[in-house]
Design a protein that fits this description.
- The protein has 627 residues and is α+β, with helices and mostly antiparallel strands.
- It is built from 14 helices and 27 strands.
- The longest helix has 18 residues.
- The structure holds D-phenylglycine.
- The site of D-phenylglycine has 9 residues, from α5.
C-alpha cells in the first residue's frame, strides 16, 4: 500500500502498524560528546559486583581519577543534566576538575542502586560488629585496584572526595588505603553518629532521620519520606509522644536500622566501635587528607573537626593533615556559597575554596608535573570579619598546647553575661519551667523539617523568635567596645538543676548585632548562634551508662560545643541562651528518668523547674576560646 513516492525507500519498509514503542533501548548518538561514559560492574574480593560509572574525557591520556563511593545513585550523580559536555553532566563541585581533564568515577556502595550485595547503613568496619570479610575499606581498596588496572587512560593515581555519606566512604578508604590512593578530601564526613553526626547530638535523637531511614532502606533505590498527618511537624510529632511511638505508628519498626537505634540509645559498644575518629587515631597517616566541614553544618557537625586532631599528632611536618571550615551549611562546599540564610559572604566562598585551595591540592598529588600547592594547613572562614583565615594549626585557643588559653565568660543571675566572676549576694540562679507538652520549637512554626530552606538554614536563624519565651533563659553582655576574637571550640560549663530526674540542656552562643545597621537594616538586632549544642542530661557522668539526675541539685554539665572562628565586633553583644528542648528536630526528654527514652510513656512527660546557677560556688560559664 506504500505510495509511489515512498516506494523503494527505507521508510516504506516500516509498515504503518509497526508498534512505535519497540521495547528496545533507545541509544542516543554520542559522537558529539566530549566524554565517554562507561557503566561497569567491578568485582569485590567476595565476588559481589559494584556498579560503577566512569566518565572519561575524550582523548584523555595519563589522567588522574577522582573517585566517589555513594549510596545516592552513581548514575544520578553523574547526570546533572543531559548534555554533550562533561562539565554539564557532573555535579557543580566537579567543574574545577573537569576543566583540568580528570577522569570522574562514581560507584554505588554495595546493596544500593545498581550494585549487588547487602546494604548496611554506614556498614561498620570489619571487627566486633562486622564478622564478614568486607567493609567500605576493602571495597574502596578493590575498586581502586581495578580502576588503575583497567582504565587505560589513567595515570594510576586516584583521589577520593565526597560529602557526608560520601565523606564517610572516603574516611573508610583511609583506614587501609590502596597505594594508588594519593589524596583525599572527606567533606562533612559522618564519623560518629551518636556524638554529633546525623543520628544524635550527645544522646538527643534527631527526628529528621525518619525520612532518611525510609529514603535509604525501604527500597534499593530511593524510598519515599514518611507520610505525615499534618503540615506542621511540631503538631504531628507532639501528637505521637515518643520517637518510638512515632516510629511504631508509621511502620518504621519494620526497618532494621531503626530497630538498631532503638536498641542502642546510649553510647555503648555499638556506637563506640563505629566512631571513625577513634579509628583514625589508630591509623597511620599515609594519604594527604583535607578534612572539611561547614561552620553551620546541620547534619555532620562532629566528623571532620574531631578527625583532624585525631590525625594531627602524626603530621610531624605539617604537610599531610589539613582542615577546612567554610561558612557553610551541610555540603554547601559543592555548590554556590555567597550566602547562608540572611548572612552574606565576601563572594562565593565555596568556589573560592574549590578553585584556589582544593584543586591545586589535588593536582599536586595527582597530576604529573603539577607544582606544589600553597595549601594552608588550616583554612577557615572568619564569620565575624567576613574573610578567609589561613593558620598553621587549629585551634588557636585551647586548654593546653595552644598559643592562647580560653577565658571563662560567666552567666549572671538577672540575665547578664560578663568576664567578671560572680560575687556573693548577686543572685544564685535564674529559672524557668520546661514543659514537655509545650517544647521550644527549633524554627518558627509551622516547623517543617523536610522543607529544604528551613532545614539548610536553621542553625543561622535569628534566635529572637524564642528570646523572651518564659522557658528560654537569656544572658547578655554589654555592647563590646573592642573586637572579641574566638578561634576554637567553646566549652559549656553549665551548673544546672532540675526538679525532674532527667533533662536536656540546649546552649547557644549568640552574636547579637547592633539594633541599627544602616547598610543592612534588616540585620539590626539579629541574634546569630555561632555555636549551638544539645546535651542529654542523663549522660552527665557517662555517655555509656546513663543515670537519673538527682533532683534540685546544682550539677555540672560540661560539654564541648561546635567549633567557631568568629569575631564579635564592637557594638555587638554576646548572648547565651539556655533552654530544654529543640522540637521537633530533637525528640523530647520526658524529664522523668526512664530506661529508654524511645519508649517513654505519655505519663513520663512532666513539667520541671530548671535552674541555671550563677553563684560563686556554682558558677556557670562558657569557656571561650579567645585568642
Ligand atoms: N548527612 C547525610 C548522612 C550521612 C551518613 C549517614 C546518614 C546520613 C548525608 O548527607 O549523606
Amino acid at each position: 500500500l506504500a505510495s509511489a513516492a515512498f516506494a523503494g525507500s527505507a521508510l516504506a519498509q516500516t509498515p504503518p502498524m509497526a508498534p512505535d514503542i519497540t521495547g528496545k533501548k533507545f541509544v542516543a548518538p554520542t559522537s558529539a560528546n566530549d566524554y565517554e561514559k562507561r557503566d561497569v560492574m567491578i568485582p569485590m574480593r567476595d565476588g559481589v559486583k559494584l556498579h560503577t560509572v566512569i566518565v572519561v574525557p575524550k582523548g584523555a591520556k595519563n589522567a588522574p581519577i577522582l573517585l566517589t563511593r555513594t549510596p545516592y545513585d552513581a548514575s544520578g550523580r553523574s547526570s546533572r543534566m543531559d548534555s554533550p559536555r562533561m562539565i554539564d553532566i557532573l555535579p557543580e563541585g566537579d567543574e574545577v576538575f573537569v576543566r583540568s581533564g580528570y577522569i570522574r568515577v562514581f560507584q554505588d556502595v554495595r546493596g544500593k542502586y545498581g550494585s549487588q550485595g547487602d546494604y548496611v547503613m554506614t556498614r561498620p568496619l570489619r571487627g566486633p560488629l562486622n564478622g564478614t570479610k568486607v567493609d567500605h575499606s576493602t571495597d574502596a581498596w578493590d575498586t581502586i585496584d581495578w580502576l588503575v588496572k583497567n582504565v587505560k587512560e589513567s595515570n594510576g593515581r586516584v583521589g577520593m572526595i565526597g560529602s557526608s555519606y560520601e565523606g564517610f566512604t572516603v574516611v573508610m578508604a583511609l583506614v587501609d588505603p590502596h597505594p594508588a590512593l594519593k589524596v583525599a578530601a572527606p567533606e562533612s564526613p559522618m564519623v560518629d553518629g551518636w556524638m554529633g553526626d546525623d543520628w544524635f547530638n550527645f544522646g538527643a535523637f534527631r527526628q529528621t532521620n525518619f525520612d532518611y531511614f525510609t529514603g535509604q532502606t525501604t527500597e534499593k533505590g530511593k524510598g519515599k519520606p514518611v507520610v505525615n498527618e499534618g503540615y506542621d511537624d511540631y503538631t504531628t510529632f507532639l501528637s505521637f509522644g515518643s520517637a518510638g511511638d512515632y516510629g511504631k505508628a508509621h511502620g518504621i519498626e519494620q526497618l532494621p536500622f531503626w530497630r538498631k537505634i532503638l536498641e542502642h540509645p546510649a553510647y555503648d559498644a555499638f556506637w563506640q566501635e563505629q566512631a571513625l575518629d577513634k579509628a583514625m587515631a589508630r591509623t597511620p597517616l599515609k594519604v594527604p587528607t583535607m578534612w572539611l566541614q561547614g561552620l553551620w553544618d546541620q547534619e555532620d557537625m562532629w566528623g571532620a573537626i574531631h578527625s583532624y586532631p585525631a590525625m594531627e599528632p602524626r603530621d610531624t611536618n605539617n604537610d599531610m593533615n589539613y582542615l577546612v571550615m567554610g561558612p557553610w551549611r551541610h555540603s554547601q562546599v559543592n555548590v554556590g556559597a555567597a550566602s547562608l540564610g540572611a548572612l552574606k559572604w565576601d563572594g562565593d566562598t565555596a568556589l573560592q575554596f574549590r578553585r584556589d585551595v582544593l584543586k591545586p591540592f589535588f593536582d599536586q598529588y595527582l597530576v604529573e608535573g603539577a607544582p606544589k600547592a600553597d595549601t594552608p594547613p588550616v583554612f577557615i572562614y572568619n564569620t565575624g570579619e567576613n574573610h578567609w583565615d589561613r593558620f598553621p594549626s587549629w585551634p588557636l585557643s585551647c586548654a593546653s598546647g595552644c598559643a592562647a588559653q580560653p577565658k571563662p565568660l560567666y552567666l549572671h543571675a538577672g540575665g547578664k553575661l560578663s568576664f567578671d566572676a560572680p560575687a556573693a549576694g548577686q543572685g544564685e540562679y535564674d529559672e524557668y519551667v520546661s514543659d514537655p507538652a509545650k517544647p521550644v520549637p527549633f524554627v518558627p512554626r509551622p516547623s517543617r523539617m523536610g522543607d529544604r530552606e528551613t532545614w539548610t538554614t536553621w542553625l543561622v536563624k535569628d534566635q529572637r523568635f524564642v528570646d523572651g519565651r518564659p522557658d528560654v533563659l537569656t544572658f547578655v553582655s554589654e555592647p563590646l567596645t573592642a573586637p572579641l576574637r574566638i578561634s576554637g571550640a567553646p566549652e559549656m560549663n553549665l551548673q544546672a538543676s532540675t526538679s525532674g530526674s532527667d533533662s536536656d540542656w540546649v546552649v547557644k552562643l549568640i552574636d547579637v548585632y547592633p539594633e541599627t545597621m544602616a547598610s543592612t537594616p534588616e540585620m539590626g538586632g539579629y541574634e546569630l548562634a555561632v555555636s549551638l549544642a544539645i546535651f542529654r542530661g542523663r549522660y552527665r557522668e557517662s555517655f555509656e551508662h546513663p543515670k537519673p539526675i538527682a533532683p534540685n541539685q546544682p550539677l555540672l554539665y560540661k560539654f564541648v560545643m561546635p567549633t567557631t572562628n568568629h569575631v564579635f565586633l564592637p557594638g555587638h553583644r554576646v548572648m547565651v541562651q539556655v533552654q530544654s528542648s529543640l522540637f521537633p528536630l530533637y525528640d523530647r526528654n520526658p524529664q522523668t528518668y526512664v530506661d529508654n527514652i524511645f519508649f517513654a510513656k505519655p505519663g513520663d512527660y512532666r513539667k520541671a523547674t530548671q535552674r541555671v546557677w550563677t553563684s560563686p560556688q556554682n558558677a556557670s560559664f562558657v569557656s571561650l576560646p579567645v585568642k
